[in-house]
From TrEMBL:
It is a multi-pass membrane protein. It is found in: Cell membrane. It comes from Yoonia litorea. GO terms for cellular component: plasma membrane. This is Predicted arabinose efflux permease, MFS family. The keyword Membrane applies. The keyword Transmembrane applies.
């Protein structure tokens, strides 16, 4: 049975993401109408703008709203996305797509890290939190499965421009659901200067080996998913002479594979630690990209590959909340979730332009080859930064603390405990 507060937050997430999924399909078709075969380049630019907003604005926004009530931050950000979405049906030029994406994702840069950091406060049990992460992954997959399926049905009876109306409804109803939810407050926290709030999450993140490994694996995931998101419409319409509904189907099977993984992961993570699951997904994803470079599949096999890439993608990204929760004290979790949001989107900031430019210039298989090399680089970095073992408790020495410091009480300068980067632990012992 769902926790009542999480249940409402989950419902709000589903509503917003269904609207976002309709937006993804409609935006791809709009780009194809405006730019034809160059639609991949237009979408790559649009998604690059999205990443710039996420990377550049989320740390600043996070620092600004870090002392504001979470509930109102979520409501205002969701409502702002709904207002921006009202303009989407009236877009007639490519530059308007870029402006709308920037404004929409600026609001998302506030909403998403705040939402993600709220869930650990609602669900304190590790198993409950693991299940919640999988449900959240399923919600994200609705953007790639249920929404395209709905879009495919709607496109049989109406123009894609009407799909943008679903985006508006999704955001506004999501905002209303949050307004009726008892969102937990931030609690009593140590007050820090704005400059420290701005950089603290990134400093903790980059000082923690498992989080540097997470960042590296995210690069692998971004390499595969960027190709899917940016180029599916071109591959299906031009490569397979598919229809608008076929585009929706291809995106849906990618999301379907991801949903299969999300259902399986809670049980799998009870038997295995996060690292082998995430690394295994990254290896699988990279291998699938390599096979697509070598072989040119027929339509059915293409859909099978898309579903398997979706499955591997979910195995990499779903457990990330467990790593973030494990790697930060309660007071710092909002900052670390914001850091993950910003730093992870640097990966897509790299891969979206590569996906669009290489597809436009050289076609599907060379584009996959280039992105496959990016995926391999992410894997190698993950093996280097995040070695096997990853113990919670680490032996370390505090040469920087006086003998009477409270942290040393009864332990001495050299001791062993669960290590988290904080005011007493600025660096990781034997840091790579």
């Amino acid at each position: 049975m769902l926790h009542p507060v999480f249940g409402k937050l989950f419902a709000a997430q589903v509503l917003a993401l269904v609207g976002t999924g309709l937006l993804t399909v409609a935006l791809g078709l709009l780009a194809f109408d405006l730019a034809g075969a160059a639609a991949g380049g237009v979408l790559a630019t649009a998604y690059t703008i999205k990443m710039v907003a996420y990377v550049g604005l989320s740390p600043i926004a996070g620092a600004i709203v870090s002392n504001l009530p979470r509930k109102w931050v979520l409501i205002v950000a969701d409502a702002a996305r709904g207002v921006v979405a009202l303009a989407l049906p009236f877009i007639t030029d490519i530059w308007q797509i870029y402006l709308a994406i920037f404004l929409l994702q600026t609001a998302s840069a506030v909403f998403t890290p705040t939402f993600q950091a709220t869930i650990p406060d609602v669900l304190e049990d590790d198993d409950d939190y693991a299940k919640a992460l999988s449900l959240s992954r399923l919600a994200y997959d609705l953007e790639n499965l249920l929404s395209p399926a709905i879009a495919g049905l709607l496109l049989l009876v109406m123009s894609y421009h009407w799909l943008f109306g679903g985006t508006v409804i999704g955001f506004l109803v999501s905002s209303a659901v949050i307004a009726m939810t008892a969102v937990p407050g931030r609690g009593v926290r140590k007050q820090r200067p704005f400059r420290e709030r701005l950089t603290r999450g990134v400093r903790i993140y980059l000082a923690t080996p498992r989080l540097r490994g997470l960042w590296s694996l995210t690069l692998t995931a971004a390499a595969a998913s960027a190709f899917v998101i940016v180029n599916t419409v071109v591959v299906v319409r031009n490569g397979y002479s598919g229809s608008e509904s076929d585009v929706a189907l291809a995106l849906a099977v990618f999301g379907g594979g991801s949903m299969v993984a999300a259902f399986a992961l809670p049980g799998l993570l009870r038997r295995l630690s996060d690292r082998p699951v995430m690394v295994g997904g990254a290896v699988m994803m990279t291998a699938l990209m390599g096979l697509l470079v070598i072989f040119e599949p027929g339509w059915i096999m293409f859909l099978v590959f898309w579903s398997l890439i979706g499955l591997a993608y979910a195995a990499v990204v779903t457990p990330q909340g467990r790593l973030l929760r494990r790697s930060a004290h309660h007071d710092d979790q909002q900052a670390v979730f914001t850091a993950q949001f910003a730093l992870s989107h640097i990966c897509w900031l790299i891969t979206y332009p590569i996906a669009g430019a290489t597809m436009t210039a050289w076609g599907m298989r060379p584009a996959l080859a280039v992105l496959g090399l990016v995926a391999i680089a992410g894997l190698l970095l993950a093996f280097y930064f995040w070695p096997k073992g990853d113990p919670d408790e680490v032996t370390h020495t505090h040469d920087d603390l006086p003998d009477d410091h409270p942290h040393l009480h009864g332990q001495g300068h050299t001791h062993r405990h669960a290590l988290i980067i904080d005011d007493e632990h600025h660096n990781w012992p034997n840091r790579r």
